[in-house]
Design brief:
The chain is of the alpha/beta class and about 160 residues long. It is built from two helices and eight strands, in the order H-E-E-E-E-E-E-E-E-H. It has an eight-stranded mixed β-sheet with strand order 7-1-4-3-2-6-5-8, with no helix packed on it. The termini are far apart.
Length: about 160
């Protein structure tokens, strides 16, 4: 009988730890915080790699919103990303958006840079000036191949008879 009691207590402790972990995860990801509190803006990117629903939208490094939805436009083949921006932030109509990596191993986020226009983007509006995500592996490959080409060009120039 004593063994059953110990197993029951241990099971209860495991369940409490699991519940505490779920509560911590829920609070740290801001799920449910300000849900529906903001206005939505559409952004079109040529490449939206690394963005998911819930990805941060930041301005000057401060989180001001999240990615709500993303889909492929079948006519333009651009990624359309729907973002929700806090009602406290008003975006000028010439605001630009770009996808930036959050460190070497981290994910990406949407960085907004406000323009100087006096008019503001309304709920359901669109950001016109965008830059998609940059593929670091592709850039590294291009650098290596261009360096190899430059090295082969300089060695072939030095071997020619004069």
């Amino acid at each position: 009988m004593r063994r059953n009691m110990i197993e029951t207590v241990m099971g209860a402790v495991v369940l409490l730890v699991a519940v505490a972990f779920v509560v911590f995860a829920f609070r740290s990801t801001s799920i449910g915080d300000n849900a529906g509190d903001g206005y939505e803006v559409l952004v079109s990117f040529d490449d939206a790699s690394g963005l998911n629903v819930g990805t941060d939208v930041r301005m000057a490094g401060v989180k001001i919103g999240t990615v709500v939805d993303q889909r492929l436009n079948p006519d333009t083949y651009f990624a359309e990303v729907l973002i929700s921006i806090s009602n406290a932030i008003r975006l000028p109509t010439d605001t630009s958006a770009r996808i930036i990596p959050d460190g070497l191993l981290g994910g990406n986020y949407v960085a907004l840079e406000p323009g100087g226009a006096e008019d503001y983007i309304a709920d359901g509006g669109q950001i016109q000036y965008t830059q998609g995500s940059i593929n670091v592996v592709d850039l590294l490959g291009r650098f290596i191949f261009s360096a190899a080409d430059a090295a082969s060009q300089s060695s072939s120039d030095g071997d020619s008879p004069q």
